[in-house]
Amino acid sequence: MNVIIATSSNITLAQVSSAMLKSDMLPDEVFVGGDVGTTAPGEQWAKAQHIARRWFPAWPGAHGARAESVRAQAMVDEAQALVVVGESEELTDLISLAIANELLVKVYRPKGAA
């Protein structure tokens, strides 16, 4: 199963680990919404679990203001599930897109996370 792990900026590796344990998912591949080598907590979790990671950079030079939405659609097109940890406007948009594309969606909002 290909899984997008999306987090808000203040989320820790421990919070992602807890969310993934609760999600009952063990991905074959984790999609990371950033440049290759980013250290987002979802990427860190996948690396620690020895799970393959695939990066999806936004490429603003190629897509301009639509870069984030183009990246989100590319990730959703190839994923089967989305795990969200935290809360932000961008995450809300990604959740809506994932639901519209019939992905399995799990949302975790740790106390104190925004």
Structure, briefly:
This protein has helices at residues 13-23, 41-48, 60-63, 67-78, 89-100; strands spanning 2-7, 29-32, 52-55, 81-85, 104-108.
Overall geometry comes to globular
**Sheet bearing the most strands, described?**
5 strands, parallel
The computed structural class is alpha/beta
Q: Architecture, according to CATH?
A: 3-Layer(aba) Sandwich
Fraction of residues in β-strands: 15-25%
Rg over C-alpha atoms, rounded to the nearest angstrom? 13 Å
Q: What gap, in angstroms, lies between the N and C termini? A: 28 Å
Mean pLDDT across all residues, rounded?
90
**How are the strands ordered across the major sheet?**
3-2-1-4-5
What is the CATH topology assignment?
Rossmann fold
Give the fraction of residues assigned to helices: 40-55%
Secondary-structure element sequence?
Answer: EHEHEHHEHE
Q: Give a count of the beta strands, DSSP E runs of length 2 or more.
A: 5
Task: Give an overview of the whole structure.
The structure is a single chain. By secondary structure, this protein is of the alpha/beta class. It has a single domain, classed as Rossmann fold, CATH 3.40.50. The chain is 41% helix and 21% strand. It is built from 5 helices and 5 strands; from the N terminus they run E-H-E-H-E-H-H-E-H-E. Strand 1, helix 1 (13-23) and strand 2 (29-32) form a beta-alpha-beta unit. The longest helix has 12 residues, at 67-78. It is globular.
